[in-house]
């Protein structure tokens, strides 16, 4: 019955030759005008910089200057360690915030309230000046030292950035945990897993999918925010380049050098984030999207065998 | 195949005496009394909201009962009795007791970030500290048993509802439980997928597994069930042999419920 209907138009339709519609396309003058305006503005900008009093040679020379590279390393080091501290604190305070114990819940709330509610710049200065109010760090019989010795620029920077980050991460992790269906916890408990095992093996891996994208943003922010640590005498990328700039008079040139490195760092980590997100998407998508590299290979394949693509 | 009749002593596998459960002011279970014998397939039917799921969840202490006594294989659920005093069990002890009770949910609740095989291996490895090789071997065997040997490497999102539910059954069986709880295991399935899941359950029943099954599948209850309870509004209205209750209900409420679902 149905195959009659199906067969009739099938092959016939494929054979019918057709003629392309010939019509005068709409003239989109607006697009042309705006395109020209943007190109002119860009050209003007490039021209201005080429005519400006910029020693481009210095930018190239100083890009790999040893003190710049040391500063770069310090920026990466402080960003990564502060982010790790933030992650650990974030998970800890998120779990505390969600726990049934009202005391831990309140403590977590207080922590987030303070560290998210005050500028990180102010927090850095407070850690830096802690010795003004506590002369010694006294942990009873375990440890005692003068505060100025404990609070090296690195420690100050780590505490300042890490504790601030922890407050933001706590909220991100909490949202991630709450996004996981309650049935998952139930199924896990029903199998005899403890609360800790359930969190580690079932809830957090699923929460990751929600946690990672904003965490990537946090990390890129951290790379840039870490430039504040120069106020606490930590010689990061910005401080290292500014030092050279101040001594040689090449102020703008050295800021270009710093910007170039910041751009390179953030670009590298954006790529890393893409692969991380892909890894934690396992199971939530029927098939994972191809990596850019796989996409290139696939395209090369079709280029070589165009008949397959048709 | 496998003999599941563990600890098949004379005492009931599940015994409920005057079990009450409230959520805040809502009184959900109003004095449930029932006994499930070892190797028995015990079916629980009743209208939506009558408290069937709640009772099932009390059996493995996902919910705490407010009053009465509930025991599994002779041991109180969630408490330990010393003299005439009751002591609440620690979280760890509650978890340990749940190992012996498998549960299958209406919405499967498979772990979406693990493959079918990993889902089945997870609890034996994490809870029983079994070696991965042993756990994997058993998981393969169980997936084979539920007819999914070739889907071991699939993630839940790549399986049909019926296949997911059969993986969920395999996952519960991996802990070698002495009691299996099923909460409407086929209600979320397309009609043509129901049969596969019921077949697996029928196989379990033949191998002597003690099962408490909340279901709307009256055919299954009649063929496989050894006992049936009709619950309404938090009380047991009628209990008995499934064939008797389904064909010749004694209470009006049972009759009107059956007339709607049959
Ligand atoms: N955690 C909870 N908090 C408050 N009320 C609850 C909770 N769990 C269940 N209830 C209530 O208890 C009653 C019984 O629920 P239950 O899930 O046991 O019903 P059921 O018999 O399984 O129904 P169904 O056939 O629809 O699954 C319902 O009115 C429900 O709203
Ligand atoms: Mg229910």
Distance between the termini of chain B: 33 Å
Structural class of chain A: mainly alpha
Question: In total, how many domains does the architecture of chain A comprise?
Answer: 1
- Overall pLDDT of chain B: 93
Approximate shape of chain B? globular
The unreliable regions of chain A are 1-12, 305-310
Largest interface: A-B, 24 and 33 residues
How does the major sheet of chain A shape up?
2 strands, antiparallel
Number of strands of chain A: 2
Helix content of chain A: over 70%
Architecture (CATH level 2) name of chain A: Orthogonal Bundle
Number of helices of chain B: 9
Helix segment tally of chain A: 15
Fourth-tier CATH superfamily name of chain A: MetI-like
Structural class of chain B: alpha/beta
Placed side by side, the strands forming the largest sheet of chain A appear as 1-2
Distance between the termini of chain A: 33 Å
Major sheet description of chain B: 6 strands, mixed
Strand proportion of chain A: under 5%
Fraction of helical residues of chain B: 25-40%
Question: Quaternary state, please?
Answer: heterodimer
Sum up the structure in keywords.
heterodimer, A: 310 residues, mainly alpha, MetI-like fold, two-stranded antiparallel sheet, 15 helices, flat, disordered N terminus, disordered C terminus, B: 262 residues, alpha/beta, six-stranded mixed sheet, four-stranded antiparallel sheet, 9 helices, globular, binds adenosine-5'-triphosphate, binds magnesium ion
Write a structural description.
Chain A has 310 residues and is mainly alpha-helical. Chain A has a single domain, classed as MetI-like fold (Orthogonal Bundle), CATH 1.10.3720. Helix content of chain A is 74%, strand content 2%. A two-stranded antiparallel sheet of chain A has the order 1-2. The two termini of chain B are 33 Å apart. Chain B has 262 residues and is an alpha/beta fold. The model of chain B has no long low-confidence stretch (mean pLDDT 93). A six-stranded mixed β-sheet of chain B has the order 8-9-10-3-11-12, sandwiched between helices. Chain B has a four-stranded antiparallel β-sheet with strand order 2-1-4-5, covered by helices on one side. A two-stranded antiparallel ribbon of chain B has the order 6-7. At the A-B interface, helix 10 and helix 11 of A face helix 2, strand 8, helix 3 and helix 5 of B. Bound molecules: adenosine-5'-triphosphate (ATP) and magnesium ion. Adenosine-5'-triphosphate (ATP) binds next to strand 2 and helix 1 of chain B.
């Amino acid at each position: 019955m149905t195959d009659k209907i199906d067969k009739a138009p099938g092959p016939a339709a494929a054979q019918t030759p057709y003629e392309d519609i010939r019509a005068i396309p709409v003239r989109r003058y607006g697009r042309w005008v705006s395109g020209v305006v943007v190109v002119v503005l860009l050209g003007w900008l490039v021209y201005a910089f080429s005519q400006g009093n910029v020693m481009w040679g210095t930018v190239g020379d100083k890009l790999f200057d040893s003190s710049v590279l040391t500063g770069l390393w310090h920026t990466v080091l402080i960003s990564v360690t502060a982010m790790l501290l933030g992650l650990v604190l974030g998970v800890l305070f998120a779990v505390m915030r969600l726990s049934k114990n009202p005391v831990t819940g309140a403590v977590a709330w207080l922590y987030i309230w303070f560290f998210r509610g005050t500028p990180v710049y102010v927090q850095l200065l407070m850690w830096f000046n802690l010795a003004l109010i506590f002369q010694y760090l006294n942990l009873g019989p375990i440890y005692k030292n003068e505060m100025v010795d404990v609070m090296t620029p690195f420690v100050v920077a780590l505490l300042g950035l890490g504790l601030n980050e922890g407050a933001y991460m706590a909220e991100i992790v909490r949202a991630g945990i709450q996004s996981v269906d309650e049935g998952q916890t139930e199924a896990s408990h029903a199998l005899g897993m403890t609360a800790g095992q359930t969190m580690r093996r079932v809830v957090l891996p699923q929460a990751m999918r929600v946690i990672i994208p904003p965490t990537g943003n946090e990390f890129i922010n951290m790379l840039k925010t870490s430039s504040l640590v120069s106020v606490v005498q930590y010689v990061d990328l910005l401080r290292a380049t500014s030092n050279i700039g101040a001594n040689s008079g090449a102020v703008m040139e050295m800021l270009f050098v710093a910007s170039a490195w910041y751009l390179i760092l953030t670009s590298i980590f954006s790529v890393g984030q893409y692969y991380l997100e892909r890894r934690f998407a396992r199971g939530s998508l029927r098939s994972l999207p191809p990596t850019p590299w796989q996409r290139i290979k696939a395209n090369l394949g079709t280029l070589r065998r165009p008949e397959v693509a048709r | 195949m496998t003999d599941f009749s563990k600890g098949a002593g004379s005492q009931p596998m599940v015994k409920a005496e005057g079990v009450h459960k409230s959520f805040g002011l809502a009184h959900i279970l109003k004095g449930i009394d029932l006994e499930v014998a070892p190797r028995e397939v015990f079916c629980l039917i009743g209208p939506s909201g009558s408290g069937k799921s709640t009772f099932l969840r009390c059996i493995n202490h996902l919910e705490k009962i407010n009053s009465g006594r509930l025991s599994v294989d002779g041991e109180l659920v969630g408490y330990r009795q010393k003299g005439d005093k009751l002591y609440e069990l620690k979280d760890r002890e509650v978890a340990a007791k749940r190992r012996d009770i498998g549960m299958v949910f209406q919405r499967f609740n498979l772990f979406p970030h693990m493959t079918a095989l990993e889902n089945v291996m997870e609890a034996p490895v994490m809870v029983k500290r079994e070696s991965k090789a042993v756990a994997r071997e058993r998981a393969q065997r169980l997936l084979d048993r539920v007819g999914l040997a070739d889907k071991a490497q699939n993630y839940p999102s790549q399986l049909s509802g019926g296949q997911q539910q059969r993986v969920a059954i395999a996952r519960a069986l991996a802990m070698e439980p002495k009691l299996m709880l099923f909460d409407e295991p086929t209600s979320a399935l397309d009609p043509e997928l129901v049969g596969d899941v019921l077949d697996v359950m029928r196989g379990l029943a033949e191998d002597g597994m003690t099962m408490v099954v909340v279901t709307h599948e009256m055919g299954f209850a009649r063929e496989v069930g050894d006992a049936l309870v009709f619950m309404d509004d938090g009380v047991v209205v009628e209990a008995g042999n499934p064939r008797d209750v389904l064909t010749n209900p004694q209470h009006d409420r049972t009759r009107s419920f059956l007339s709607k679902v049959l």
